[in-house]
Specification:
The chain is α/β, with parallel strands linked by helices and 894 residues long. The protein has 29 helices and 29 strands. Strands 1, 2, 3, 4, 5, 6, 7 and 15 form an eight-stranded mixed sheet that branches. Strands 23, 24, 25, 26, 27, 28 and 29 form a seven-stranded mixed sheet that branches. A five-stranded parallel sheet has the order 10-9-11-12-13, with helices on both faces. Helix 2 packs parallel to helix 4, helix 8 runs parallel beside helix 12 and helix 20 runs parallel beside helix 29. The chain is flat and about 115 Å long. Bound molecules: adenosine-5'-diphosphate (ADP). Adenosine-5'-diphosphate binds next to helix 10 and helix 12. In the N-terminal section; belongs to the phytochrome family.
Length: 894
């Protein structure tokens, strides 16, 4: 049995937890035998037998039922019961039992899990303390031992406890070493697997590209021919499907590279204007084909040269723009680029891709960056895609230490925002952007011959017969003389006798590859093509190619599958001018024709917005650029916008005549539209709402904000101008370039320091609006009571009641509110009121001056939405109490 026990302990297939449990229980059972022998109480023999049987049964059942924690708990309980018995029968501290208490702690720490571990730890400590306490105060309870016995027991226990603990530690060490070896081995295996996977993907990519090259190339030849509509449609479908397959291969290759950590970000200096032009050239025709407007907005202060991974930035933007075109039926696609200095030599660039398309449902927004995730499949099933694009985009952006976010309203459009920091290589500003590379040929454009060169000689070198055929056919309209060579050796043979104006060279060929062949060409004694430009043809995708081929001495490179238009453009760019007759096709001048280029309208990085119920004076709103989302007022005549369509006085007299008049927060869709508009003006929006338990506004805004990763909604915890105070402070912080997180933190902190107390003349309106019960209203009327409404934890509550005539009440209220002037931040006070005459307002101001003068006092009329809830004759003194949140920005609200 012991042998089997030991075998299991060393068996890697058994879970570590079970092995530890078996070991420690075994050790404890050995320990138990000795503890009980040490006791001098005759009943110990029975205890010994009983405990051993108990432990054995518990261990067996718990292992069988896979309930180790329960088994361990049952064993610990036994130990906790046993120890006091043996402690008192074994002579207390003058015996060998104390050492075994330590073993109990070890048992608990090794076998128990979760909350039970600290609980039993504490129990064990408590039990030890109690045993010692009783033994000290009531020594008569101990069975006495002689000094010789005590020494003997102690030494025996120390040695045994030591040996058993060492066994445990040795086993742990052994386990650690075994596990460590296993981990290292597994890591190696995973790496090997990854390498194999990578190798598989890149060779698969290479192998698949070659036949696709043939399909696409020959299909293009069919399309160029004089064919019936039916055939043309079939050929176009083949074209679409092959391109789709190609995108899939590229995406899978990229994903596998990123996953294995092999995707390297190569930062080089690049011309920003060139980059935008290239992107436009790749996208504009797709937009035009769908009847979409393509707009480009580039910040004129953009440095003309930056240092970054141009290829990956392009990949990210083209991917986002392709999606924008794909998922938009009508309207426009806009690429906006904005920059901001973040250091002497560094710039933060925001690229935003905006469309007026299908948008993404808010519940899908958290998933759109997941690999293989296509959201809203039902609606998008006719749109080709794999669900890989955005996952790659996000990972690429993160590899470049950037950020990506999405703001999207279903059926209204989406905006993807990418932020990247880059070093400035040339301070010169880009100025008003013009497309510089209009001559670049667009891949998707319908083929039109761009030139003829009947006197030019060109050599194509490729080991694949089909590739030779495709290139020759694709160039056939240019009337160039084309020779082909199916190996590097054949190429070198031909170049000894024939001069070529251009050579197209495959990279991967058996025996001598394209790079070796190029070097051999350059050094060929008596060769006629030593200085001839050579273009690499490659079936390997990847940004590294560009650098590799440039470094090796190629004049350019073309990735397979080769499009006819790109091939012609590449050949045209290197053929001697005198051999070329340009066609009159207008394709070149047409490129970019429909692209609308705008100067970038400046977007601020952070905007603070709020609702119309913030009761802030227009002057302050303008000064701090605070945008307002209006509440609604509903009457029998319809729905009106708070303050702009229906003013408070009008509404109050309308209600006084016995008519309806209720306020309603903006609906979720209103907030969505509001946020979408704000995001045209700002990169990020913080929206501050009325106290969340007072109005549904907060919940609607939060629901709407789920569509916008750049919108944050915060509950001010207050209403009216006290809510306005936190808005004002947040806007002030934003103006002083505080970060989003700092502002959010401060606004939350300010909730406690803003004083919101309103005195109500008549409770009728509040009762009507459901804010207080009818009973309270009747009681207030009968006793001439005026409630003071306060806000606590975002809820409205009656803070106190003032009694008597209203003038008397006003005085009492002001005195109470301004009771501790030393604690009040006296820079700004709002006296916000509804339906009060000038005399009363003057009286209030005088009293305020008397009790606690403020630097700035704003007399602010409450908005209609607030007025219809509190009724005429209500007002509040709203201010901040001194607090440490304001220290950094000490001149807030100046
Ligand atoms: P796909 O190949 O399906 O386009 P992506 O990873 O590029 O894969 O996008 C994932 C999903 O996100 C798409 O299936 C689509 O539902 C949604 N999506 C991406 N971009 C947009 C956009 N501009 N407008 C609407 N939905 C989009």
């Amino acid at each position: 049995m012991i042998k089997k026990w030991l075998e299991i302990i060393f068996d890697h297939k058994v879970s570590l937890r079970e092995r530890m449990f078996r070991l420690v229980t075994g050790i404890s059972m050995v320990a138990l035998i000795f503890i009980l022998i040490l006791g001098r109480y005759t009943g110990n023999l029975f205890l010994l037998a009983g405990s051993l049987i108990y432990m054995y049964i518990v261990a067996k059942i718990s292992i069988q039922k896979e309930a180790i924690n329960a088994g361990a708990t049952a064993t610990v309980i036994l130990l906790l019961v046993l120890f006091p018995v043996v402690f008192f029968t074994g002579g207390g501290i003058y015996g060998g039992v104390p050492e075994w208490f330590v073993l109990c702690f070890i048992y608990i720490s090794v076998t128990l899990e979760g909350r039970r571990k600290p609980l039993f730890f504490l129990l064990c400590i408590a039990e030890t303390l109690i045993c010692y306490y009783i033994a000290y105060h009531y020594p008569e309870l101990l069975i006495p031992t002689t000094t010789a016995q005590a020494y003997f027991d102690s030494v025996r226990s120390v040695i045994l406890a030591g040996v058993l603990t060492s066994v445990l530690l040795l086993f742990q060490n052994h386990l650690y070493e075994v596990e460590n070896k296993l981990t290292i081995q597994q890591k190696k295996e995973i790496e090997e697997l990854n390498q194999a996977e990578n190798h598989f993907f890149s060779s698969m990519s290479h192998e698949i590209r070659t036949p696709i090259n043939t399909i696409i190339g020959l299909n293009e030849m069919i399309l160029r021919g004089d064919i019936s509509d039916d055939i043309a449609e079939n050929a176009r479908n083949i074209q679409g499907a092959s391109k789709m397959l190609l995108t899939l291969i590229n995406d899978i290759l990229d994903l596998s590279k990123i996953k294995s950590g092999k995707m390297e970000i190569v930062n080089t200096s690049y011309e920003t204007g060139e980059l935008f032009s290239e992107i436009v050239n790749m996208i504009w025709i797709k937009a035009r084909e769908k009847g979409l407007e393509f707009r480009l907005q580039v910040d004129p202060s953009m440095p003309s040269m930056l240092c970054g991974d141009e290829v990956r930035i392009k990949q990210v933007l083209v991917n986002l723009l392709n999606n924008a075109v794909k998922y938009t039926k009508e309207g426009s696609v806009t690429l906006s680029v904005r920059c901001e200095r973040v250091g002497v030599n560094r710039v933060r660039v925001w690229y935003s891709v905006e469309d007026t398309g299908l948008g993404v449902k808010k519940e899908n927004i958290p998933y759109i960056f997941d690999a293989f995730k296509r959201v809203d499949e039902k609606k998008n099933r006719h749109i080709e895609g794999t669900g890989l694009g955005l996952s790659i985009v996000k990972q690429l952006v993160e590899l470049m230490n950037g950020e990506i976010s999405v703001n999207s309203v279903y059926m209204n459009g989406s905006t993807f925002l990418v932020t990247l920091e880059q070093d400035i290589m040339n301070e010169k500003e880009l100025g008003t952007f013009t497309l510089t590379s209009r001559t670049k040929v667009h891949e998707g454009a319908q083929y039109q011959r761009t030139f003829e060169a009947p006197d030019a000689h060109l050599l194509v070198v490729d080991d694949n017969e089909m590739n030779l055929l495709v290139v020759s056919k694709l160039l056939s309209d240019t009337k160039i003389h084309i020779d082909t060579a199916s190996s590097a050796a054949e190429c070198l043979k031909l170049t000894q006798y024939q001069h070529y104006d251009c050579i197209l060279m495959d990279h991967l060929m058996p025996e001598m590859d394209g790079i070796e062949c190029l070097h051999a060409l350059h050094a060929q004694p008596g060769g006629l093509c030593q200085d001839v430009p050579v273009i690499a043809l490659t079936a390997n995708a990847g940004s590294d190619n560009q650098q590799l081929y440039r470094k090796e001495g190629f004049s350019g490179y073309l990735a397979k599958p080769i499009s006819g238009a790109l091939l012609e453009a590449a050949v045209l760019s290197i053929l001697p001018k005198e051999l070329v007759h340009l066609s009159e096709v207008a394709s070149q001048s047409e490129i970019g024709k429909d692209v609308l280029i705008f100067e970038q309208a400046k977007r601020i990085s952070l905007m603070v917005t709020t609702d119309s119920v913030c009761d802030l004076p227009e002057s302050l709103r303008k000064e701090f650029g605070i945008k307002i989302c209006p509440y609604y007022i509903c009457t029998e005549q319809g729905r009106f916008l708070d303050n702009s369509e229906l003013m408070a006085e009008e509404l109050l007299s309308h209600i006084a005549e016995g008519n309806e008049g209720n306020s309603h927060p903006p609906e979720v869709e209103d907030y969505e539209k509001f946020f979408a508009r704000r995001l045209n003006e700002a990169q990020n929006v913080i929206h501050i709402t009325m106290a969340k338990h007072v109005s549904e506004g907060y919940h609607n805004a939060v629901e709407a904000a789920k569509s916008f990763e750049n919108v944050t909604v915060i509950d001010s915890g207050h209403l009216s101008s006290s809510m306005g105070l936190s808005v004002l402070y947040a806007a002030y912080m934003a103006e002083h370039h505080a970060s989003k997180d700092e502002i959010i933190k401060t606004v939350k902190k300010l909730r406690r320091y803003i004083s919101s107390a309103f005195i109500i003349d008549s409770t009728h309106m509040m009762c009507r609006a459901g804010q207080i019960s009818r009973k309270i209203q009747i009681m207030c009327d009968a006793l001439l009571l005026h409630p003071v409404i306060v806000l606590r934890k975002s809820r409205m509550a009656v803070g106190s009641m003032e009694m008597g005539s209203f003038n008397h009440v006003i005085k009492g209220y002001i005195k109470k509110v301004l009771l501790h002037p030393g604690a009040i931040d006296r820079r700004i006070l709002f006296i916000t009121y509804a339906g009060m005459d000038d005399k009363s307002l003057q009286y209030i101001q005088e009293l305020v001056r008397q009790y606690c003068p403020f630097e700035r006092v704003y007399l602010q009329k409450a908005s209609s939405a607030i007025a219809c809830n509190c009724g005429p004759g209500s007002f509040g003194l709203l201010f901040m109490r001194k607090n440490d949140a304001l220290i950094t920005y000490s001149d807030a609200g100046k």
